[in-house]
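Researcher: Please generate the 3D structure of the following complex. Treat every line as part of one assembly.
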Amino acid sequence: MSETREKIISLADKLIRVNGFNAFSYKDIATPLEMKNAAVHYHFPGKADLGIGVINEDLQRFTQQTNKWQKLPEEEQLKHLIDVFRKHSQAGNICLMGSLAPDYNTLAPDMQRKVQEMCRAILHWLTNCLENGRKNKRFKFKGNAENRALLIITNLQASLLMSRVLGNTIFSRISEQLLDDILI
Amino acid sequence: MSETREKIISLADKLIRVNGFNAFSYKDIATPLEMKNAAVHYHFPGKADLGIGVINEDLQRFTQQTNKWQKLPEEEQLKHLIDVFRKHSQAGNICLMGSLAPDYNTLAPDMQRKVQEMCRAILHWLTNCLENGRKNKRFKFKGNAENRALLIITNLQASLLMSRVLGNTIFSRISEQLLDDILI
DNA sequence: GTCTATATTCCGATAGAC
DNA sequence: GTCTATCGGAATATAGAC
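Model: Done. Output below.
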């Protein structure tokens, strides 16, 4: 994978999180990297290709991270997940799900499928984490683990949205309360 | 208030919820209403004026509705709020907070202030509802009412986002579980 | 792999007639 | 209050030289 390609993806990732997918342009990529917009098109012919590239990178990073946490107690794994969101909160970012889901109807079909794949992967991991954590007496919660994963992931996604509007003390309040709810 | 103005606001509201604020144009308003884009500019000189008009309308509707629920038991009030979100879910909409918060950095300052005002108003109402409901032994939850309101409102906002991506059974699962958590 | 140059389309917005 | 006409700019994208 070329270094230029990596730089483009990294900057696009940031722009999606800060301004939204429909609100940034090839020029916003090209100018800071000191290239021409045509050069970006060489690496990513269409904007959807760029979006898919960003999601693939994010999914790969997510898999690497969760693999590293595999042997930890489940509450540590959950705290690590929350830390990922916290760092984004501090950087003024929102998560890719929270940024791309609102624009979903405007996305090309193959990019829509990628967004779906990303959401499913994260929910699947969190569901397993919660399920195992309850089995190992580290979590307590009502209902099944899938539904609980939905509640927690929506808290985290939208906490970044509300932090953007109301200031990022919001994130700490939400993440601390949700941990307090579920930890034994 | 002119009828044309009302129609423009109503359509803009729908477009913001379905495609996002930055993804619709004056043409998307003008064509279905069989006017010219210049006519829309007469009613709303800039796009931010239109956005602010939409939010004001939504805030007014919210106040009217919550006033109507005032005398009901708190769990009925909360269920009414959830119903508002449910109807949007069924219509393929997301809520204004979930649509405008991701685009927040790209909005004009006066529109940013309106978005803030809307979020604060909804959170304020929900906080009071939860506080009173706990006092009247209708709700049970840990922590203070403000934090609980943040958890619930983020569940509702992002449930619409996830419903868009993964299908709208998501909304029912989230709303049922959150009620089950809090009702006595 | 990156460039220049350009095509095409669309955007928000304004001027001025009616 | 709505129209026609148009401006200035920005967007995505492509052709073809280097």
